[in-house]
């Protein structure tokens, strides 16, 4: 044990000596390992951070939530030209499903539309996300009201001009003024503010409720009608807990087909998008991004490996005389082999640690600059360290074997 500890100490000294005496050569050789480890860990940290943020954003939602609409969340086998002919879901279908499909816990009818400007007296906030919905929407998506309340069923059905605003909208329009009960203008109409949402922060999908407003969907239906091309309707369905989702989707599909009069020989002219399917789709993308990161970074690691091997071959040549003296004094082949192998691993570790340090610095900067938490996990750091060790072992094994097999007499004579 003491022998290996001495070996490690000497190898560290030789590695540091190589850095001191041949700074440029050593740093250029280590650059490949540094870039390779940096690339892999940076990609893995970015993907892990994105995955964590997505799961955090979706954590309060039921993964069985259904988005019924004419569009699909993921890839579809149906040709695009055919999908473009699908009709939008309607408010009448929302009411039909609500009263006829079993296993529905909550349902909401929503309209997706373009961003708008909103005004209060002489103040204007632009690019506001407009989210008209029925009152059940708050029971389906994780919306938290900090002040006031969300609109109720009576207000939803009658389409009265009441509105719930996000925290940034409230700050932009009212600053330190109490917003509840104030009149604001949207679509050229006056709305009464009845609620302010709790600050959510940046969302992964760029859909933060901080810059959104909610009001009864029937207000916009009455204003624009049901055939306006600027509006994309969707029916959100939250099934009861523990339901068999396949049976639920089958019943929903059959009853909507019957309501629309779709023939048995025709395909469904709507999509049942389940949130769990969307998360599976995201997981697939995350896996592909990780794979691409490994492939790209692999080339840098390959170059880094050759760089370490180059340093070690030069080191063997420079220390041939010393190796001969060590062997003449009784040093075994194994001692010489481990000496150079440890040196290669230490050099590779230095390059890997520099790469991970750069990832850590960039993660800190981006976390503060973008209001998005980049996570450099202990697993990724352990992975980076392990990769550096493996690269050092692979790159140093041949030079180490070469050094260990040197004849002591020839080695001493070569160095003279």
Automatic annotation (TrEMBL):
<feature type="transmembrane region" description="Helical">
    <location>
        <begin position="291"/>
        <end position="314"/>
    </location>
</feature>
<comment type="similarity">
    <text>Belongs to the ABC-4 integral membrane protein family.</text>
</comment>
<dbReference type="Pfam" id="PF12704">
    <property type="entry name" value="MacB_PCD"/>
</dbReference>
<feature type="transmembrane region" description="Helical">
    <location>
        <begin position="27"/>
        <end position="47"/>
    </location>
</feature>
<keyword id="KW-0472">Membrane</keyword>
<dbReference type="Pfam" id="PF02687">
    <property type="entry name" value="FtsX"/>
</dbReference>
<keyword id="KW-0812">Transmembrane</keyword>
<keyword id="KW-1003">Cell membrane</keyword>
<keyword id="KW-1133">Transmembrane helix</keyword>
<feature type="transmembrane region" description="Helical">
    <location>
        <begin position="335"/>
        <end position="366"/>
    </location>
</feature>
<dbReference type="InterPro" id="IPR025857">
    <property type="entry name" value="MacB_PCD"/>
</dbReference>
<feature type="transmembrane region" description="Helical">
    <location>
        <begin position="378"/>
        <end position="403"/>
    </location>
</feature>
<feature type="domain" description="MacB-like periplasmic core">
    <location>
        <begin position="26"/>
        <end position="254"/>
    </location>
</feature>
<feature type="domain" description="ABC3 transporter permease C-terminal">
    <location>
        <begin position="295"/>
        <end position="408"/>
    </location>
</feature>
<protein>
    <submittedName>
        <fullName>ABC transporter permease</fullName>
    </submittedName>
</protein>
<dbReference type="GO" id="GO:0005886">
    <property type="term" value="C:plasma membrane"/>
</dbReference>
<dbReference type="InterPro" id="IPR003838">
    <property type="entry name" value="ABC3_permease_C"/>
</dbReference>
<dbReference type="GO" id="GO:0022857">
    <property type="term" value="F:transmembrane transporter activity"/>
</dbReference>
<dbReference type="InterPro" id="IPR050250">
    <property type="entry name" value="Macrolide_Exporter_MacB"/>
</dbReference>
